[in-house]
Amino acid sequence: MIRIGMVGLGFMGQQHFTIYQGMSNVEVVAVCDKNPDKVAETAPSIGGNIGEVTELDLAQQARYTCFEEMLEKEELDCVDVCLPTYLHADTTITALEAGCQVICEKPMGRSVEDCDRMIAAAESTGRMLFIGQCLRFWPEYEVLADMVANDELGRLVSAKFTRLSPTPDWAEDGWLLKTELSGGAVLDLHIHDVDSILWILGMPLAVRSYASNLFSAGDKVDHIITNYLYDDFICVAEGGWALPATFPFEMGFQVLGEKGLVDFSVAKDPMLTFYPADGEPYPPQVASGTGYERELAYFVQCMENNEFPERLTPQSARESVRVVMAEQQSANTGEIVRLT
Predict the structure, then answer these.
(1) Per-residue confidence of the chain (340 residues) as pLDDT tens digits?
(2) What's the Cα-to-Cα distance from 41 to each of 7, 26, 38, 132, 285, rounded to whole Å?
(3) How far is CA 290 from CA 76, 130, 137, 254, 313, in A?
(4) How far apart are CA 316 and CA 225, in angstroms?
């Protein structure tokens, strides 16, 4: 039985807690949040842009408002970090140095330097560090990755990834909308597709980004469109959270190869369709469960087997942050930024 302590019970923390409650090989023994209401015996639900929400029954968990106290008093195998991005590095390092394995929500850190500190701590302590880049476990994205890897699309011609959201108003103290804390939509939201692109298509040679703001000041972080420069195909991604409150969350992709097009959108039914160059379109078979469920199950299995995660390493999550920072630089300067 893997004993888990959770720190941060906002939207993603509540998602993780609910998933753990359905797993027979995990026990959430303690929860921690600086806001006492979030660790009350019955904690109110916090909505987000995707996933189900419900109030939490925390009667069986030890409840803390101080992370260091939780680490000191509880015997934990793993700490699940679902805190604001700017707190990821220091909290993760503290947990690793306390001897715990760590799963930390994406993005890995607020900067590449933060990511490097986290990697160094994991290596020096010999503990596992897993970053919650959930699209690597999202069934439709797994199908796309397999189709590309198995040459089912043939020579790639173009790829487009989309992630659009209403403005996130659910974060405590509005931290998501404070660029210095979250990195804005460019880092917090768009990084999902950046990570998918690197995982499925490999590191591009360079990026050229165009971004704009609706409500943020300073760096352009509310909405971004990036051209990823590869030698022989086109790749573009668009992401932003400046959409009206009535706009339904959208994520999707369209990837075209000489053998056909694979199309995914949460707004369509079926959501995933393959349009072969020859023959009739059909919905590929996808695995059950969400990326959140599947990523947590994978990491728990890694801990049970004492096997460091291979599907998603801290180094790969760090590279996703590095590419986002290059995109930010390109958007600010109007120049192409090389990556290799």
Answers:
(1) 999 999 999 999 999 999 999 999 999 999 999 999 999 998 887 766 565 667 899 999 999 999 999 999 999 999 999 999 999 999 999 999 999 999 999 999 999 999 999 999 999 999 999 999 999 999 999 999 999 999 999 999 999 999 999 999 888 889 999 999 999 999 999 999 999 999 999 999 999 999 999 999 999 999 999 999 999 999 999 999 999 999 999 999 999 999 999 999 999 999 999 999 999 999 999 999 999 999 999 999 999 999 999 999 999 999 999 999 999 999 999 999 999 8
(2) 16, 20, 9, 27, 41
(3) 26, 17, 8, 20, 20
(4) 22
Pairing of strands 78-81, 2-7: parallel
Residues 176, 188: Cα–Cα separation, whole Å: 8
Q: What is the pTM of this model?
A: 0.96
d(CA 189, CA 120): 26
327 contacts: CB under 8 Å, gap ≥ 6: 186, 190, 194, 207, 209, 211, 224, 226, 337
Helix (H) or strand (E) holding 72: helix 67-73
Tell me the two tokens of residue 247.
Answer: 């706009």
Give the integer Cα–Cα distance in Å for 303 and 284.
31
- Domains of the chain are 2-133 (3.40.50.720), 135-293+320-338 (3.30.360.10)
Question: At which residue do the structure tokens 């403005």 appear?
Answer: 167
